Amino acid sequence: MRALAIAVVVMVALPARADRTKAEQYFRAGAQAFKQQSFAAAAQNFELAFAQLPLPEIAFSAAQAYRREYFIDPKPEYVKRAVELYRIYLDKVKTGGRVGDASDGLAEMQRELERLTASGAKIASVVQTATRLAVSVTVAGEQKTALTSELSAIPATDTTGAKATLDGKPVELFVPVEVAPGEHTIEVTAPGYFPITVKRRAVEGASDVVEAELKPEPAHLAITAEDGAAIAINGRPAGTAPLPPQELPAGTYTVTITRRGRDPVVREVVLGRAETAKLEVALVRTSKRRALPWVIGGAGVLAIGAGLATGVAISADNGMSSLEHERVTTGITAAQLQTYDSDVSRRDGARDAAYVLGGAAIATAATAALLYYFDVPQPSERLIVPTASPSGAGVAVIGRF
Q: Which of 42, 200, 328, 389 has the most CB atoms in a 10 Å sphere around its CB?
């Protein structure tokens, strides 16, 4: 019995969800038509949404569309329906919302309705019984219009540049067109978006909206830099050069390029949908790296000096040793003794010089090694860079931590 109760609840709940989903599609189509200043199409789509889900906000939006369309195509039935819808809204919403706009709109349309009635105008009802299809376009990742969003009286401009065909014939977006019952093919294209093909069966006597969600084509960024350079995009490592073109959503990016012995480079790149961009960066040697050859050369000169001093010391030591042997065995003359003392002095001086020059060469070579291995500069400051893409926005923090 409990399982049967659950099944009944589910069966009752499913149509409500389906109705709301359909109402949301109709409402989005109406909102887009309103932005395109196609008010008749907006009114038709809002009516379909209201039939599925009679919310006061939808009634207000439909009334706004009828009122604006009346001043373009002055059909009395638009006035009558606008009055009805404004009253529905004001019956439900007493304060807040768009009560002021609804009151003003109702007063204006009521006066016009009274004028038309007094002049004897025939006022029909707005009836929608034809078999119709409308093509609605949304963009993946963008916030969709909520059912509780009462539209402003000031329309905006659509910027997707989308075009639609119905069975191969161009149709205006968001505008319901009469079709024969049966299956139809809808194709939607837009610059920078993947093309869409949708099959939809039209039911006789019913209106429907085909909602096509445009998915942006990614951009491609080719970065050319010195081989081995580390590349980061918005603070995230992308690899080392040479790097294949990077596939990225449209937006603003900060590219950081670093390499041992090179000054870091930070570049901002703005990518459009389906755009192929190139970033060529010439890295400049750091001051440490420019000084390195001189330091290595200095170490080499010191090492040569140490080697020469060592050779002099060895030569003097050999001469002194020969005289020392002769002095011990046979004796030496005063002149030879003077030569002996000179060799001792020359050996000791050259030896001390070799120690000093050798130590300096080693210290200089160590300095050169430190200059080489620790010369990996990063951006000197933390950069907080705003980033944006179709999937969201944020900031990238780049620099030394």
A: 42
